Amino acid sequence: MISIVNYEIGNMGSMLNMLRYIGVEANVESDPEKLSMARKLILPGVGSYDIAMTKINQIAGMKEVLNRKAQKEQVPILGICLGMQLMTNVSEEGKLNGLGWIPGRVKRFPSYKDIKVPHMGWNSVDVNIRNKMSASINNQSRFYFVHSYYVDLIDKSYSLFTTHHGITFESGICLNNIYGVQFHPEKSHKYGMQILKSFSEI
Q1: Where are the domains of the chain?
Q2: Is residue 11 over pLDDT 90?
Q3: What is the pTM of this model?
Q4: How far apart are CA 32 and CA 20, in angstroms?
Q5: Where are the alpha helices (DSSP H) in the chain?
Q6: How confident is the model at residue 10 (pLDDT cuts 50, 70, 90)?
Q7: Which of the residues are catalytic?
């Protein structure tokens, strides 16, 4: 069973539908007590960094449970889009601290003439680490992106995937039991299904 964390900001419905479509048992859960029993978590997110962290901070026990699952119990956790960004320390988009599970900061795409912001649409990834999450992905795999900010890791050895959009940025990160992808696997057809299936099998 995978629990999709419901902190009132994200695309829980489409994520749940995709997991069920590929035969993975999942639920959407907002109760920290029930989340504390989860064996795997997905942290989705759409919107701004500070609004998302405010929601997590306001739900009694939510942040404490997430930190315990991530760091003490070390259950597999997958952050998606904004959910991946929240796994870092800080963001140029706001002032609040993130969850700090993987050292890094979130930056806005630079204002170059050849860079369209937000980065929206299909783009490929380069695989930097071969593990269970990336086993079925190659450098021609394309995923669907929608974002104006990107993760800049302090330690590039945690870079699972990179993507080029004017600059090269981390489109996937991993550290021990923590995984994150900047793209939307639930909107990325067969390769997105492969990512979610691989996560379910970790």
Answers
A1: 2-200
A2: no
A3: 0.96
A4: 23
A5: 12-21, 32-35, 49-58, 62-67, 82-85, 189-200
A6: confident
A7: 81, 184, 186
